[in-house]
Request: fold
Amino acid sequence: MKDIVQIRWHGRGGQGAKTAALLLADVVFSTGKYVQGFPEYGPERMGAPITAYNRISDNRIRVHSNIYEPDYVVVVDETLFEAVDMTKGLSPEGAIIVNTARGKAEIEKELRGYQGLVYTIDARKISIEALGKYFPNSPMLAAVIKVSGVMSEETFLKEMQHSYEHKFASKPTVIEGNMKALRLALQEVK
Amino acid sequence: MSIRERLSGNEAVAIAIRQINPDVMPAFPITPSTEIAQMVATYIANGQVNTEFIPVESEHSAMSAAIGAEAAGARSLTATSSCGLALMWEVLYVAASSRLPIAMAVVNRALSSPININCDHSDSMGARDAGWIQIYSENNQEVYDNFVQAYRIAEHPSVRLPIMICQDGFYTSHAVENMELLEDREIKDFVGEYAPESYLLNSRQPLSVGAYGLPAYYMEAKRSQLEALKNAKQVTLEVAEEFARLSGRNYGLFEAYRLEDADYAMVIIGSTAGTAKDAVDKLRAEGKKAGLLKIRLFRPFPGEEIAHALKNAGFIACMDRTESFNGQCGPLGAEVKSALFNARLMPEVINYVYGIGGRDVAVENITSVFEDLIRIEQTKDAGDRYRYLSLRE
Amino acid sequence: MAIDDVTKITETIAWTDITEGCKIEAAGNSRLFNTGEWRVDTPVFIKEKCTHCLLCVPVCPDSAIPVNNYKRADFDYEHCKGCGICAKACPVGAIEMKEGGK
Reply:
């Protein structure tokens, strides 16, 4: 693995891309690595395009700036393709992970000639199936873990179980739904 | 024993406050510092601390209430940003000149207008002459460590002045990073109980605070206040030494990074210092002698020590994250140049305004500053000594 | 440093001797300042007319009207600066202003 792995998230205010970046920092932290998870704030409005970032490294991370040459880009909301250049600066050795029901060939057309790997995942379908509601966070988080390999799937599931038990102590049914969403996402990201 | 954690800068301050368990916190919400008061209010609601939270109608009231509480004998604090700090301006002076050791978590944010919620230092730099001690932090670990040390410095009998612990809005306040916490017990023992010698609620020793000062007294009062602020320098070092024994983490008045033999030095404040260290390492790998001086204590300004640390550098970049509107330098540039002049040092000093209103600063931007310095050495032409970094022309 | 005797804080003390934050560790020290010296007109208390309604007491800026047992006494001329507010406030004409500080 590279000395530092950099991830950029694209979503819309209210969809939880920032929360997903913080969750990723949380879960990777549990493996003993150094992490950063931070949002870039523009207008604080529901629906406005937002960007969030992660750095992951075995060494202490000192840099405090946004990420311009990410290894991975995560697109939580595909309607942003028109407005945002998703693959800008994205490493050709890296990958882009898109939340979509569309086929990979169709997504590739949106990527302005990006040469790296393209993964798709239907987070809506997974979320509805597992939770009965649309929360793209958990499936997208699982997809990033699988594609980037920053931690093993087994450790990831164990840590997330632990984290959900803490977070949803009073709502155990939600824990099972979220775990199901993670497992489905690990299988279905392609 | 240290506890490995990953927290945002705001969470780090809130946890330090919980561990210290101060007496009174009046606060008014403002981005990006809102979370601090929100988290402390949660600790209070959960019964984890017995701090008295005072919801107020403005930041002017927040600081006024902190002044009243502190004068009454309560360990007090508040948190704010940007326009909130600006609204406190009048009473900041009252807190300092009444010698009340209030602590304030400042999450640095730009001032309007244009309205902007993002990071720069115009808020606390505007308040730099209010008589408060000012300490700035590079990352979440420093935010926590500095806040833990705040009351020990502020309440020291030779100081007794209010203190601002500053961190960069969003860059650290909203960024989750690895850090290490100390145990609650360790913090309580380190900070100790607050036992002021004189306070308004002491019925055995009546006290008048806020007397009228005729011209015959005012200058003597200010000179006396200055002495207390100057004392804060030595106390900051002593507290840092004790903190190092507890935590293993060392702090001084500033941090010198690869500065000893540097020909090209950068003086900077806040989170971009971390970014600049990466730039320095890159340049060093190319054989270029770059170095960094990161300010920790800005008030009082350790001018002699800073001039001494910079004595070998021929070319210096002073980085100001605010605009002073004097047309020739920013506040850091002015302080550093003044310190160098007093030490009879005449290096080339270029003053940059950078990152204002949240303009992002990457490693490459910092590298370009060092490259400017190298070019100035080669061409012997300084050009404009007051510049904007990454400005569209 | 702490000074519990306000008379030691004078216009001749050095900056090193002024109290921390100009705090005064004593109560009621305003009585040490004889504002009565500022008086150019003087209120006269006409005891026979006074109903002891005490309306004059709270309006006095220098607390120069002593009250004992719900009855006002004659003026405290050490501190009365002769502003005349009490004379305006008195509904029964029990306070008259006369020219001169004595």
